């Protein structure tokens, strides 16, 4: 844990040294790629309300949906450059900019919801935030609500892993996710999120996976008739902020914004936990999708092979973080 202590200390020192701005009215343009009614938009609305409450209105959060200020694939780099104040970016789309984030993308890395909560709300989550800031100068304000990704396709119901054979699956351009679907027997096709709806509608790909609510929010049920409950990846919606934005805040405002992010994350995560099965039921009834709940034994065995192979390739720092996550399950 020496690495964690050293990194956290450096993070705090950097944050304090930058927090010399005079309290003033500041605008935070907060971007995301999905519609305003999506998970990102709902999380953002809670954050907006709390920030303006906690800061007495001195910080004004303005939500910018639908790729108005950047696409999700561009958002992280834009924050590093200081051209974007804040952005919601799915964890797997952070990995090209910070490879350690792929630890959270590993298939079946979290044993259950309680294990996941102990990771993101505890020492491991603090380490990830501190190391990310040190390596990229981007602040991870909150991990946000966590959803297991559900799989969908237009070809056939999936009852066993053998039914995945040959399916062309849209996958983010993330090596862990690509390797996972290869291990499941599918043919992964890396596509940016902005290209995904069209690729699904035109049959360029046969299916994909998203957090449950996104399948409904994006109306994928209209042309993807098969819903498969695998819970193979955890989809989180982390809230990030640029150092350029954070450095404009006074120390007090900085604390208030960070507290608002954590409180908004906790509030919305509780809402999301109660909604997942409701949305799945809606997709299988009003949405008209055929739902299957395959036995996951073969999928988990394939995923464990992916975990071991990725950890062996990524080096000791990656292995250490995997071990920290596994230890949090005990």
H/E series, N to C? HEHEHEHHEEEHEHEHEEEHHEHH
What's the N-to-C terminus distance? Answer: 17 Å
- For this structure, what is the CATH class of the largest domain? Alpha Beta
Cα Rg: 20 Å
Superfamily (CATH H level) name of the largest domain:
Bacterial extracellular solute-binding protein, family 7
Secondary-structure-derived class? alpha/beta
State which percent range the strand residues make up.
15-25%
CATH architecture annotation name of the largest domain: 3-Layer(aba) Sandwich
Largest sheet: 5 strands, mixed
Main attributes?
5-stranded mixed sheet; single chain; globular; alpha/beta; D-Maltodextrin-Binding Protein, domain 2; 330 residues
Characterize the structure shown.
Residues 5-10 and 12-23 have low confidence and may be disordered. The chain is built from twelve helices and twelve strands. The strands form three sheets. A five-stranded mixed β-sheet has the order 2-1-3-11-4, with helices on both faces. Strands 5, 8, 9, 10 and 12 form a five-stranded mixed β-sheet that branches. The longest helix is centred in the C-terminal third of the chain and has 34 residues, at 251-284. The chain starts with a helix and ends with a helix. The chain folds into two domains: 23-146 and 236-273, D-Maltodextrin-Binding Protein, domain 2, CATH 3.40.190.170; 148-234 and 280-327, Bacterial extracellular solute-binding protein, family 7 (D-Maltodextrin-Binding Protein, domain 2). The chain has helices spanning 2-18, 39-54, 72-81, 113-120, 123-136, 175-183, 196-202, 212-217, 243-246, 251-284, 297-314, 316-327; strands at residues 26-31, 59-64, 86-88, 138-142, 146-153, 168-171, 187-190, 207-211, 226-228, 234-236, 239-242, 290-292. With 330 residues, the protein is α/β, with parallel strands linked by helices. Helix 1 crosses helix 5 and helix 2 runs antiparallel to helix 10 (251-284).
């Amino acid at each position: 844990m020496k690495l964690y202590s050293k990194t956290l200390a450096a993070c705090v020192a950097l944050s304090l040294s930058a927090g010399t701005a005079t309290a003033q009215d500041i605008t935070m343009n907060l971007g995301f790629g999905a519609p305003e009614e999506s998970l990102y938009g709902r999380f953002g609305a809670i954050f907006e309300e709390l920030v303006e409450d906690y800061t007495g209105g001195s910080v004004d959060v303005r939500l910018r949906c639908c790729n108005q200020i950047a696409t999700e694939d561009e958002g992280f780099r834009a924050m590093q450059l200081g051209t974007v104040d804040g952005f919601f970016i799915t964890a797997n789309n952070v990995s090209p900019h910070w490879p350690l984030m792929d630890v959270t993308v590993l298939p079946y890395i979290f044993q259950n919801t309680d294990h996941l909560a102990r990771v993101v709300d505890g020492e491991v989550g603090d380490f990830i935030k501190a190391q990310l800031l040190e390596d990229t100068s981007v602040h991870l304000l909150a991990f946000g609500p966590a959803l297991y990704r559900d799989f969908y396709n237009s070809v056939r119901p999936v009852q066993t892993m053998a039914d995945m054979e040959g399916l062309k699956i849209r996958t983010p351009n993330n090596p862990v996710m690509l390797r996972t679907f290869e291990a499941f027997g599918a043919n992964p096709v890396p596509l940016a999120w902005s290209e995904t709806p069209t690729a699904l509608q035109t049959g360029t790909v046969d299916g994909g996976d998203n957090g449950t609510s996104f399948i409904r929010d994006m109306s994928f049920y209209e042309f993807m008739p098969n819903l498969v409950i695998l819970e193979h990846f955890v989809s989180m919606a982390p809230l990030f902020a640029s150092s350029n934005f954070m450095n404009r805040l006074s120390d007090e405002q900085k604390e208030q914004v960070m507290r608002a992010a954590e409180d908004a994350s906790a509030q919305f995560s509780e809402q999301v936990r109660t909604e997942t099965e409701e949305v799945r039921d809606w997709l299988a009834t009003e949405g008209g999708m055929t739902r299957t709940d395959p036995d996951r034994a073969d999928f988990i065995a394939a995923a464990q092979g992916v975990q071991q192979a990725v950890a062996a390739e990524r080096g000791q720092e990656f292995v250490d973080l995997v071990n920290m996550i596994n230890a949090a399950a005990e």
